[in-house]
Design brief:
- The termini are far apart.
- A hairpin with a 4-residue loop joins β2 and β3.
- 23% of the residues are buried.
- 55% of the residues lie in helices and 12% in strands.
- It has 11 helices and 8 strands.
- By secondary structure, it is an alpha/beta fold.
- The strands form 3 sheets. The chain has a 4-stranded parallel beta sheet with strand order 5-8-7-6, sandwiched between helices.
- Keywords: Coiled coil, Plant defense.
- GO terms for molecular function: ADP binding.
């Protein structure tokens, strides 16, 4: 004979489960009006929260030139979608409320009203959840700096071979510093600008910095240009000493693989005193400079 087994179900258990199911389904109809009122209140608060957040973002973007955070943008997009969906349900609600009878616990079209009540409950839960996620201490931050900023430049007439030669040297790990020497007006700055623009137009992992040294206070001028490029320049920056500025620059640049394009050097330039890490094979950084003095270049 085959194995014999039996299943015994308690009638009380079956009745309880059926009752739980029935009352759970009925609650979507009985609570429809209360949930609608709650949704209208929560939705109004969500709209106020969205407006306040958008106002903060606009100030940060327009007045402070910051870029909104991705999580803020995502929240605003989800809020926009949810508000549209909730408004649509609220607009449809009168026709469903009219179907209610017996104190709001029954409906002349129970299936349709039940479905609508379930939608209201679900979207009310989403609105409450999204409201709880809309408290941002910061809404924007400084946008990432471009790896290189394109510079206006004249055509490199007769300089194409030099451009290729310098760019070829830049690809060599053992080359850290490149000097470009020539008399005034021969095209040194133009060549350096073309190198800068080649960085701008190609894919690389350098943080490119352009600075002009000139004759008067060259180190301070270069420090100020670097500070602008790496985000150190502010009101407090101006009051700092040369050594303090050097320390700030060093703390930033030692974390970066940089290419410093240093134009118009007139005398020996102390990179370390300016806070510029010496290029090595380990850090991979580069310094390219121009000068009209052969002894400085050497």
């Amino acid at each position: 004979m085959g194995n014999i087994f039996s299943i015994s179900l308690s009638l009380d258990t079956i009745i309880t489960r059926c009752w739980d199911c029935a009352t759970g389904q009925a609650s979507y109809i009985c609570n429809l009006e209360d949930n609608l009122h709650a949704l209208q209140t929560e939705l109004a608060e969500l709209k106020e929260l969205r407006s306040d957040l958008m106002r903060r973002v606009k100030i940060a973007e327009d007045e402070q030139q910051l870029k909104r955070l991705g999580q803020v943008e995502g929240w605003l997009q989800r809020a926009e979608t949810l508000i549209t969906d909730a408004d649509q349900l609220i607009q449809e609600s009168p026709q469903h409320v009219e179907k209610l009878c017996m104190g709001g616990c029954c409906s002349s079209q129970p299936r349709s009203t039940h479905r609508f009540g379930k939608q209201i409950t679900r979207i009310l839960r989403k609105v409450k959840y999204l409201k709880g996620k809309g408290d941002f201490s910061d809404v924007a931050s400084k946008p990432p700096l471009p790896s290189a900023t394109e510079r206006p430049s004249d055509p490199t007439v007769g300089l194409e071979s030099y451009l290729k030669k310098v760019w070829s040297c830049l690809q060599k790990e053992q080359v850290g510093i490149i000097g470009i020497y020539g008399l005034g007006g021969v095209g040194k700055t133009t060549l350096l600008s073309q190198i800068n623009n080649k960085f701008h137009d190609t894919t690389h992992d350098y943080h490119v910095i352009w600075a002009v040294a000139s004759q008067d206070r060259p180190i301070e001028k270069v420090q100020d240009e670097i500070a602008k490029r790496v985000g150190l320049s502010n009101e407090g920056w101006k009051s700092k000493s040369l050594d303090e500025k050097a320390g700030d620059i060093r703390s930033i640049l030692h974390k970066k693989k940089f290419a410093l394009l240093l134009d118009d050097i007139w005398e020996w330039f102390d990179l370390s005193r300016a806070g510029i890490p010496i290029p090595t094979q380990e850090n991979g950084s580069k310094v390219i400079f121009t000068t009209r003095r052969l002894d400085v270049c050497c």
